[in-house]
Amino acid sequence: MSKTLFARGARFAAVVAVCLVAAACSQTRPELTSGNSSVAAGSGQDFVVNVGDRVFFLNNQSSLDGSARAVLDKQAQWLQHYKNYSITIEGHADERGTRQYNIALGARRAAAVREYLVAKGISPTRIKTLSYGKERPVAVCNAASCWSQNRRAVTVLSGQ
Amino acid sequence: MSFVMGLNPMRTTGVKQLWRHACRLVAAAVTVAAISQPAYALIELDITQGNVEPMPIAISPFAGSGLQEDVAGQISQVVAADLQRSGLFRPIDPTAHIQQGMNVGTMPRFGDWRTIGSQALVTGSIAQQANGQIRAEFRLWDVFAGQQLIGQQFFTTPENWRRLAHIISDAVYQRLTGEKGYFDTRVVFIDESGPKDARRKRLAIMDQDGANVRYLTRGDDLVLTPRFSPVSQEVTYMSYVGGNPQVYLFNIETGQREVLGNFPGMTFAPRFSPDGQKVIMSLQQGSNANLYLMDLRTRRTTRLTNTAAIDTSPSFSPDGSQVVFESDRGGSQQLYVMNSNGSGATRISFGPGQYSTPVWSPRGDLIAFTKVHQGRFMIGVIRPDGKGERILTEGYHNEGPAWSPNGRVLTFFRDTVGEQGGPQVWTVDLTGYNEQLVQTPNFASDPAWSPLLD
Questions:
Q1: Does B229 share its domain with B276?
Q2: Domain ranges of chain A
Q3: CB contact under 8 A, A104 and B312
Q4: Pick from B195, B201, B268: CB nearest A103
Q5: Residue B101 within a domain
Q6: Is residue B361 part of a domain?
Q7: How many CB pairs under 8 A join A and B?
Q8: Long-range contact list for B365-368, CB < 8 A, 24+ apart?
């Protein structure tokens, strides 16, 4: 399987995971890993598929809503368990803004995620942030449904 | 009385050398033997009005001897294209010219030129020299007065023919409008290729009319927002080298690149001060971006703003005393003007929508910006006191204006809709009536104009 194919699959899975999280939270404390058991626990794929590597934002906003906080709670739990990973939080904006502001807005989103994870006990020394502004869209259609997927902060694992 | 100025053959295509030649070419704008008596100011185009009726002008195809026949024809075509794109002139189709086969020594039959409605006439000749150089001569005529307005002669190498054409265009523009031209200039921009979700971006440079595109980086690293130095062959821009986004300085002559400063975070949105000695930029720290100034000689940095907001896109006034920038300190992106030491920030934009990417005109009288309102992206201008806002172009996505060195034209990029869409570089003049696409090999964004060297 090519790297690109994997990446696209992972993105799709991540979006599905985000949609399911809110329901899961309301019932029981989420399992450390759940869902796809064909994925090795503690692997990068486990993080993307079963935890969810990204959160989404409203237009021009950097605040974390309930579903974003739920994903980040799971990320924090997972990262507490697998302590050998460092992470880079990549902040992104949609294409419907100007370039320089979007760079800063992406950074602001990454910073919001960083603050949340630190508050949940992840050591700041494990976290780097990076903003891509509007330069790295994942959805390219000309519609609100695509722009909302691009307004995101993605937690990327490194260090193993 | 003829005065002849020589240029050495260019041994390399080094850019600096090219520019030095340009300086000499312009400095040597001397009158060759006038066929008729010298003229006073007879025809002049008033370009201060809102909507200018273009002046009909005839560019008689330049005469070329021997090897230079093709070059001669191309030079006159580039002159006509420059003048046409300015929106201030309407070159008359050469097939409609009654007097054909002119060279620079031919006396115009002014009645023939008046018959086809031409107010001004340009004639020229290109001749091969024994040393491999070409000799270029041109004259600008006032058709109604029947007098010569300009006569100039240049020596250069054949490869330089486009520059020669732009220098002639600048001379005609200046003589007929009373303002400096902008044709002998270049534009740095970002070349974009590949699919929308995996764009490859390269720093590139071209002549202002889109010719002679040259790539300055290979596309390995994401590069954004290049800005030309007002005094040297240097560009400041943002690059993601090594996954660490920072502001860099790039020397076009040597290809050398250096990071600017040792900041504890991402730096972006750089721009030179008017004297070229400093770079102003944003530093991201946590959720906030603040403005910093770096002295290129001492390498010292000074913090200019300190707010819990995004302060970015700074641009100096031409006298260096003030800075315009965008900030969301009031809740949404708006334009602010402050003193260049960071004091006295005052909001100047108050219309509906968000204002960003301000850039101060080299004439000092206007600030250009991008405005986003109800999903539409506009390029506009406003006076530094916040009055007189005018929108020049409006549509799905227009962004990032930059001024021509004479302050009469803006270049910007326009993005098109959807997966196959992408940005292209456009120009619009201050009337807003004259929009022109700049043809580039690939998608192109973030254009910034070079100065006109004199």
A1: yes
A2: 3-158
A3: yes
A4: B268
A5: yes
A6: yes
A7: 92
A8: B365/B407, B366/B407, B366/B430, B367/B315, B367/B324, B367/B335, B368/B401, B368/B402, B368/B403, B368/B410
Which residues on chain B are in Cβ contact (under 8 Å) with A112?
Answer: 287
Are B414 and B421 in contact by the 8 Å Cβ rule? The answer is no
Confirm whether B158 is domain-assigned. yes
Chain A residue with Cα closest to B418: A142
Per-position pLDDT tens, chain B of length 454: 232 333 332 222 233 333 334 334 433 444 444 444 444 445 666 655 555 789 999 999 999 987 677 899 999 999 999 999 999 999 999 999 999 999 999 999 999 999 999 999 999 999 988 898 899 999 999 999 999 999 999 999 989 999 999 999 999 999 999 999 999 999 999 999 999 999 999 999 999 999 999 999 999 999 999 999 999 999 999 999 999 999 999 999 999 999 999 899 999 999 999 999 999 999 999 999 999 999 999 999 999 999 999 999 999 999 999 999 999 999 999 999 999 999 999 999 998 999 999 999 999 999 999 999 999 999 999 999 999 999 999 999 999 999 999 999 999 999 998 889 999 999 999 989 899 999 999 999 999 999 986 5
Provide the number of structural domains found in chain B: 2
Best to test chain B binding among A103, A127, A135, A149 (most B CBs inside 10 Å): A103
Q: Are residues B114 and B250 in the same domain?
A: no
Q: What is the largest CA-CA distance in chain A?
A: 42
Residue B52 placed within a domain:
yes
Chain centroid to CA B21: how far? 19
Q: Is there a contact between A134 and A97 (Cβ–Cβ < 8 Å)?
A: yes
Sort out which chain B residues have CB atoms less than 8 A from A118's CB and list them. none
Range of the domain at B76: 15-177
Q: Which of B197, B266, B333 sits opposite A140 (nearest CB)?
A: B197
The answer to whether B71 and B159 are in contact (CB under 8 A) is no
State phi, psi for B398 to the nearest 5 degrees: -120, 135
Question: What CATH number corresponds to the domain at position B142?
Answer: 3.40.50.10070
8 Å CB contact of A100 and B268: yes
Helices (H), chain A: 3-27, 44-46, 66-81, 99-119, 144-150
Query: Any CB–CB contact under 8 A between B195 and chain A?
Result: yes
ipTM, 2 dp: 0.88
**Is residue B267 less than 8 Å (CB to CB) from chain A?**
no
Under CATH, what is the fold of the domain A3-158? 60s Ribosomal Protein L30; Chain: A; (3.30.1330)
A111: which chain B residues are within 8 Å (Cβ-Cβ)?
286-287
Chain A nearest-CA distance from B286, in A, is 6
Rounded-to-integer distance, Cα B447 and Cα B442, Å: 14
A98 vs B201, B356, B419: nearest CB: B356
